Amino acid sequence: MKGPQFVDKSNTTQLGSAIYPLDYTKYSIVPDYFNYAGIHRPVVLYTVPQTFIDDIIVHTDINDTTGVVHYTVSYIVGEYGVVDPACHVELLDHQGVMVSHGTGLFGTLYIPEANLWWPRLTHPRPGYLYTLKVSLIDNDELLDVYRLCIGLRTLQWNSTTLLLNKKPIYLAGFGKHEDANLRGKGLDNTLLVRDYNLMTWLGANSFRTSHYPYAEETLLMADQEGFMVIDESPACSLDGFDVILLEVHKAMLQEMILRDKNHPSVIMWSLANEPRTDKPEAEDYFRY
């Protein structure tokens, strides 16, 4: 989030043997990853019905062998949409069998003898996922439906230990990057599978999304494969701790949490990477 450092613009179009457009700008930082601008991930255009599901918030708990899912659904109504649709919620296991259901925009589902979400190296069946199916209905007409993969797990901590499903866990893994020497920066699903296979082969069970939130495909695979994720905001080498930077930083954190809040793999939020906290003004910055 520190502004890039540039050399002065030049009126010439040639630098040595290289030819540049008039008034070119040269990037002077040499990062340890592919820190380039551009579209790094798929851009998807889609339509929504006049009444559509806008957000789903899920909190999970465990009561002995019973899984508990607290859910909240919000929707948006267009000019010709249905103002007050009925909301039906179903929870399906990995075979598509309904194990619990409810009605209403918020409520609680109970799953007897639930399969919990466990990370790798802690359970013979890591990454178990259920599907939360949310439907908006008006007089038997289906207005919208959304399917969300969720994992049943709890997180607790004290001054010495992080507990997942009430058991201590140990993170073995990496500070990762979303690039590769074959293609450079960006999402590549084939390389993504290779990365997870390599991490599994090395005996890892976690990684940090250094130094920015990764593509949703990466987190979905972490959910499925049982990898724990420290989700990091794009605040790298923070400096100049002023009000403008603080507001931008907070907005980015809010967007990251809004997008990634329901992933069972995400066990921790990282505010920043290597901020200049030796500066006196950093104390008040991070307090707010």
Automatic annotation (TrEMBL):
<comment type="similarity">
    <text>Belongs to the glycosyl hydrolase 2 family.</text>
</comment>
<feature type="domain" description="Glycoside hydrolase family 2 catalytic">
    <location>
        <begin position="160"/>
        <end position="277"/>
    </location>
</feature>
<dbReference type="InterPro" id="IPR006102">
    <property type="entry name" value="Ig-like_GH2"/>
</dbReference>
<comment type="function">
    <text>Plays an important role in the degradation of dermatan and keratan sulfates.</text>
</comment>
<dbReference type="InterPro" id="IPR017853">
    <property type="entry name" value="GH"/>
</dbReference>
<protein>
    <recommendedName>
        <fullName>Beta-glucuronidase</fullName>
        <ecNumber>3.2.1.31</ecNumber>
    </recommendedName>
</protein>
<dbReference type="InterPro" id="IPR006101">
    <property type="entry name" value="Glyco_hydro_2"/>
</dbReference>
<dbReference type="GO" id="GO:0030246">
    <property type="term" value="F:carbohydrate binding"/>
</dbReference>
<dbReference type="InterPro" id="IPR013783">
    <property type="entry name" value="Ig-like_fold"/>
</dbReference>
<dbReference type="GO" id="GO:0005975">
    <property type="term" value="P:carbohydrate metabolic process"/>
</dbReference>
<dbReference type="InterPro" id="IPR036156">
    <property type="entry name" value="Beta-gal/glucu_dom_sf"/>
</dbReference>
<dbReference type="InterPro" id="IPR006103">
    <property type="entry name" value="Glyco_hydro_2_cat"/>
</dbReference>
<dbReference type="Pfam" id="PF00703">
    <property type="entry name" value="Glyco_hydro_2"/>
</dbReference>
<dbReference type="GO" id="GO:0005615">
    <property type="term" value="C:extracellular space"/>
</dbReference>
<feature type="domain" description="Glycoside hydrolase family 2 immunoglobulin-like beta-sandwich">
    <location>
        <begin position="51"/>
        <end position="153"/>
    </location>
</feature>
<dbReference type="GO" id="GO:0004566">
    <property type="term" value="F:beta-glucuronidase activity"/>
</dbReference>
<dbReference type="InterPro" id="IPR023232">
    <property type="entry name" value="Glyco_hydro_2_AS"/>
</dbReference>
<dbReference type="GO" id="GO:0019391">
    <property type="term" value="P:glucuronoside catabolic process"/>
</dbReference>
<dbReference type="Pfam" id="PF02836">
    <property type="entry name" value="Glyco_hydro_2_C"/>
</dbReference>
